[in-house]
Amino acid sequence: MNLRNLKIGVRLGAGFATLLLLLSIVAVMGAIEVRLTNQHVEFFSVNIVPSLKVVDKLRSGSQELRRFESQHLLASSDQERQEMESSIARSQAGITESMKAYEALLADEQDGKNLQAYKAAITAYQAIWTRLGALSRQAAQDPAKMDEAKKLLFGESRRAFAEVGKTLDTLWDYNDTLTERGSQEAAAGYRTALWLMGVMTVIAILAGAFCALWITQSITRPMAEAVQVADRIGAGDLSSRIEVSSRDETGLLLGALKRMNDGLMQIVTQVRNSSDSIATGSAEIATGNADLSQRTEEQASNLQQTAASMEELTATVKQNADTARQASQMAHSASTVAAQGGEVVGQVVATMEQITASSRKIGDIIGVIDGIAFQTNILALNAAVEAARAGEQGRGFAVVAGEVRSLAQRSAEAAKEIKNLIGVSVEKVEAGARLCDDAGRTMGDIVSQVKRVTDLIGEISAASSEQSTGIGQIGDAVQQLDQVTQQNAALVEESAAAAESLKHQAAQLAQTVSQFKLV
Known about the structure:
Layout: H1 8-74, H2 78-104, H3 109-138, H4 143-154, H5 156-234, H6 249-343, H7 345-390, H8 395-434, H9 439-513
């Protein structure tokens, strides 16, 4: 398991747990040593000291017993001897109690053997007392017994008492040995515990220093790297290569900084590319708007010329309509004359010259109408061409121009037909002049032809009125198209200004983004 992947909390917990464990070991070792020391002290205070006190009592009791025995031998009366015997009995009882007390305080088997040796010695000594006491009591009546008693007192009894003293010294020395041994063991345990506690303390200090250094470096190094990365990102340097080598909090922080750095790099790259594209597009838009503005101005100029031509065409059509109305009136007059000529054949010959003159005049009028129709056709064709240039906005104008052209063609055809008829009429009038006799027969034909001419002239008049209306509509359409063109020109100028502003903004954006270093 990689220790760098451990969380910071786990590292701190492990470090403190290690220190606490080592301190606990030191504390446990100290507690064990304290317990051992307490056991030695308790053994000394509960066993050794009481044992020495009991040995001291046994020594005192034995010495009292010896003294009372000597005083018993030196007593001058039976009462003194009885008092000494009572004291001896009390001393023996005290020795017995002390031996029982010592048995309760035996330290080990050797201590028990030493006590048994004392018991044997004191028992032997007390057995000698029994003999000595009997001799002491007999010495009161028999002085010879006194010498035997003294010999026993200073001989066998002294040796037995010396043996008792030796056993007491053995008991005392053994307890003293136990005391010294316990002191040595306590001192050795103290030194061992002190050494172990010192070693464990040094280990704990070294382990604590190592854990502190390791944990500190494992936190401060990645944090310093994270601070450097953040400073570089803040300065606009996105070219840093961030290596994440752990999964702890610092590793997560470096990973987040890496993702932020990569995300900012992608965003800045996209913004830089977009700003370049916007700059290129805005430049193209500005160029296109300049061309469009120029074409729009040219179109507006052409529309103004078209409007002027339409005004001239309108005046011509109005004049054509007036001429057609006059022709209609003249045709009506001719019809009246023809009717009168039918009634009075004689007057036909007289008026033939007038009819001939009128027919020629009508021919001239028809020529004028034919010329007007031709001019109308030419103007309608020009209007259709200009409407085609105007595109979608000139579609209605093209329709009206087509209608005008159709009416002009119809007028031309009617004028040609009337011209032909007038020619026929002239020929007939001339023939009638030559052949006056045929005037009566052809008068009916003339009347019918005059009526037909009247109808045709009426149609021409109606067509001229329609042409006048259509030309007016074309003029209105041209005016509207001119207004739309002017509006388009204004919009083109606004679009050009917006494109230029967009171009400057794109340049500023590119300059701002260029502050970031990507590689």
